């Protein structure tokens, strides 16, 4: 475990890190670099290591080119579950960076992979609180996903005799960042977890802050997860940072040991994510 | 501490408890009986010790008359924050029971009394997630209360540059059961707690279940509180059962020691509430 702190902001700082001798040594000892690229939904705000606001952080393109030319693998790991990998590729393209879908690891994808890795049956459904990124990743993985934006405007008339029905074939509830959280969704998720035998409760992450606009902080996935914990009195399986699921998944995919990986992030959860898994970490000082 | 378990349902069982010799002894040693009367919002469902559905539990009127004729004090303590004491008096009247406002202790009133007891300044405002019971009790106590049903349909356009404004004079956030919970309310409460120096975070209770209709269980205040804990990473002050604030308040009001009080409830939180305070407890088996 080795945490390097770069004084300059974002990937500009990261790029500088490749110049000094110490940084060259680090690069020499690492085969894969994982980058945080935390950003918000709705194409609004992106802050952190790769972009900030709508702008690419200076030096990012050069740094990525340099790493690739040295034969290093790169991966982008984010707790933002509102987008799918496909949507991220578009986002990168819009900023002039060419990345492959297989290099992007948002927690929406993480949730789908958690189900895959654990042989979640294809005939079971997923109920999701969150954005369409989760819906897309679940569909790519072959799962039927209920909820998400389809339930954004659902209301109920809470009168005597009213019975709330839920799908008994839901075998997993996935909770991600959802600015359209409502009581209908909370009740749906709660009933699946309470009443469907063996139903999984998965959180994409538990971040307190969700970067939805560029002006201020917004309640993060931690709010949606807290609401479901409060009614079910259960704790979720977390697939995003700083939990280690994504790192374990990446190690298998990259066929690599942790000592040859380095996580570059702008927040303590990023550093924890790296350190929890025993890989090298770099903290850039542009973020949370 | 002494927990009596009554086999028969609700207050019918309670009434029976006053017949055997052991029960007479209990009554002889107790000067005040506190009853749970858990019920739902919107005049929908009431279950537990005093009523169940829309019906008074058999024997309740007789039992209350018997206690009053023996000079015992009675109090009704509920975690249901959706109604005020005034609204409860009406509810009791509709069921043919005459009670005084001063005998009713819903957690909406508890939250207002918590502020009073702690000298919360009158020029500070309260932001509440919950029903109009909280609004009414705050108004009776002389406080300005924002939020509640007024924010039920609030929406935001989360576009670039949008800035969410909140009242800097809010000095306390109160969270109760709210079937109209939304992201606007979560953001409002979160910003007050995060940005207003010294802002209190008060929960009426943290119950997992809210008895909103008579057919099934619904997410309780625990959901709304969990959402705010998730975004603020703070823990609330809890005024409802099983926390001891209401008991301490009642002991002062009744000018009585705990050993002369007995809590009659239909749930373990009720029993805990009694036992946490060191008073006698009776669990009736009609409830949660």
Task: Please describe the topology of this protein.
The structure is a homodimer of 288-residue chains.
Chain A: E1 3-6, H1 10-17, H2 21-28, E2 32-35, E3 51-52, E4 55-56, H3 60-69, E5 73-78, H4 85-94, E6 104-106, H5 107-117, E7 125-129, H6 132-140, E8 144-147, E9 170-175, H7 183-195, E10 200-203, E11 209-210, E12 218-219, H8 221-232, E13 237-238, H9 245-254, E14 261-265, H10 268-277, E15 280-284
Parallel strand pairs in A: 1-15, 2-5, 2-14, 5-6, 7-8, 7-9, 9-10, 10-13, 14-15
Antiparallel strand pairs in A: 3-4, 11-12
Protein name (chains A, B): Phosphoglycolate phosphatase
Active site (chains A, B): 36, 38
Keywords (chains A, B): Hydrolase, Magnesium, Metal-binding
